[in-house]
Design brief:
homotetramer, 239 residues, alpha/beta, Rossmann fold, nine-stranded mixed β-sheet, two-stranded antiparallel ribbon, 7 helices, 25% helix, ThuA-like (chains A, B, C, D)
């Protein structure tokens, strides 16, 4: 599969703490472990021309990962529209952590995608609530992250097609942390963890989940549906 | 409840066939039978200032019905955004027939909302597939409409939260005709029938369904969720 | 509406702590606050003839509440089957707390309905994750129960039709605490809290949720679907 | 994968028309095309000891297909319970056509699984309503079966987790023909077509769908959840 990892790539260039964890950027770490699965993985970032998401790149992408945070507004609406169209055409999309507020996620959800948050000393424990789901393959009953940003309910998303993970936080909150949606011919997985100041994407269980998610989000090979004016397939009245 | 019936109101002024069926407009007929339920019903149309959807009107509307077709593009984006916000805040929304292609429905769904269609001599039979749903109260196993425009699958909508009606058409097609969604604090019902050249909204069973839908879509009375930075409810580590 | 509150009624007669909280039984407290809504409420208990669930009682019951724990096995299979049939025919069913392991709930779910549990000093906080749901009307962002038995995931239930509440527990667990299902013409609400040694059903917010649930679970008034051999509604080939 | 195809295998031995289509039994045809995918496929039939479903067979089966019709009642309850347990433990289950009334399907659904039916000259057209689903891979907008038994709504099943196919029938009915469920760690696909007097399982598109379904239903490799009394993962009050 052709995987494209998109990253805003701003924190890593400005903040020493983040740089220490992700010296080449969050996208480099994501790309690195996804390559282990023999996917063809490339990266794209906000400050490239067309954010690195040219028609050529998008058209050959099977699954796109999206990490963004402080510069959602800088993403060109025209590119957002192209990504949306590609999802409707079948491309998988994996939206990570603060990507909940990205234009592409909000556009595909139709809601505010707002939530509670806190940068403090919370522990996160992600419980598997759908043990039959391939995205949970190889994962124990829960994944524990010693330090993560808290995201709390209410998370203003449509009722997910599937709810795979629910998070517990020290401070008393819960969160629907791993949710799937289908839109058109494409599949979407939102996955909560991944705050830039913690080494979350270095965690092997988190890597397993994302490897699984990429497989799950693979486009289905079939002709796209035909829309518009349609001739009858059966004889109508008076014919 | 305060119900607002929004109608594009163009066909009825241009096309004699439509005018004959809906002399005062589709909105007038919708308003008329909804008033029988002791709701406070008002109407709003495209060519009024702000399409009749001022802040004052929207803020007091509990459930909004939406019929549009040939002038979706003339609906002001700013009004669409306000309607979306009101739905997220709890207002019910009932989208009718060709309203599947309205800006507000596409915005709330995140998909193309495209479909197959045909104006011919199809009969439509709407089968109840969720007999437990209050929107189907008082309705038999199916509703038969001797003449209706055909809408066929694939209907490019998110998987509905609830599927209540599935239509059969003479020409060999099927369609998910009555579907519900929740978005934020609001509820949405899309209902397929209602082509302007047929007397569909004069049909008593269709009227029953829409009366039920208005009740179902009523806003829930509660404080809206709080979003943003949140203090912990429990003691964090190191505190 | 005619409400029947069914209770095993064993703990209250054996355990002084439980008796102190529910001197007339859990059913008496449930019945008491439901009566405030002008429902006609009766009770039935395990040790009555036919567990108090005669055909006459069942046939006129609109919504049945079910609390059981230590004597699930003593419930007659024939009665379970009748209750199942009544749910399929439209009766609402509200299953409470340890009722997750009742024969009727397991029969309607088709799964083990197993879970993790702990009687200790956990606090429970039930977060509303579906703010549009009528069962959450009048409820704040969460309900806090200072002491409750812990139930933890994985909860072996089918993916709920609707997920309304998710619980946080002190000990590090989460739980899908308020879930809805439809089965046939009937609606089911499972609600987690209600351990016999805590005064949970005296809590006003819990009472509000159960009052809402009873309204939501009300049977839909319509003819039941017809099954079996069916004549064609349209002309078949060769006719 | 280890696939077991279970067949009642009665019609084929009694009815010449069925025998002509499936001389070695429906199971032989199903096994034959599934073997093309390099699965290890075995068959089992009602009249074998333990219906061919010994513990050894069940325990190594990854996906079980089930075709039954006139002898549902002859299936031993103890075997049904073992199959249910295997599904909850992760085994995939594909229920075919008249298997809607099998003990195992009714047990896993919790409903009557009843429907309308007619043996006549209906054509069936199965429309894909979820183009993103892997079970629809390689399938066009619809599959047309020139002759099939009619099954019509209301189909008394729980709201499916996913709805993939909706059927149109000549006689005026519709049907939810391809639906998925998860139960415990296992996945279930119900697929409507396959009446014994028609060569449905010789149809290449039907074969493609079933090949896809087997892949989709594959068990997830992970430790099963732990249930029962649980120690806290965090420090409780007063500890």
């Amino acid at each position: 599969m052709n995987i494209t990892v998109w990253n805003e790539f701003r924190h890593e260039q400005r903040n020493d703490k983040v740089k220490a964890i992700y010296p080449q950027g969050i996208h480099a770490v994501l790309a690195s472990f996804l390559q282990e699965e023999n996917h063809h993985v490339t990266t794209a970032t906000l400050d490239e021309a067309q954010h690195g998401l040219t028609d050529e790149v998008l058209n050959k992408t099977d699954v796109l990962l999206w990490w963004g945070h402080i510069a959602h507004d800088e993403v060109d609406d025209a590119i957002v529209q192209k990504v949306q169209q590609r999802v409707l055409d079948g491309m998988g999309l994996i939206v990570l952590h603060s990507g909940h507020f990205s234009k592409i996620f909000k556009t595909l959800m139709g809601t505010s995608c707002d939530l509670k948050w806190r940068e403090a000393t919370d522990k996160e424990r992600l419980w598997v609530v759908d043990p039959s789901h391939p995205i949970a393959a190889g994962i124990g009953e829960y994944v524990e992250l010693e330090n993560e940003e808290m995201y709390g309910e209410h998370f203003d998303i449509p009722a997910p097609d599937e709810l795979i993970f629910v998070s517990w936080f020290t401070g008393g909150e819960v969160f629907r942390s791993g949710v799937t949606y289908k839109r058109g011919n494409g599949k979407i997985f939102y996955f909560r963890p991944g705050h830039e100041t913690y080494p979350t994407y270095h965690n092997e269980q988190i890597q397993t989940i994302l490897k699984n998610a990429v497989q799950w989000a693979a486009p289905v090979k079939r002709e796209r549906p035909v829309y518009g004016n349609a001739q009858p397939l059966e004889t109508l009245k008076g014919e």
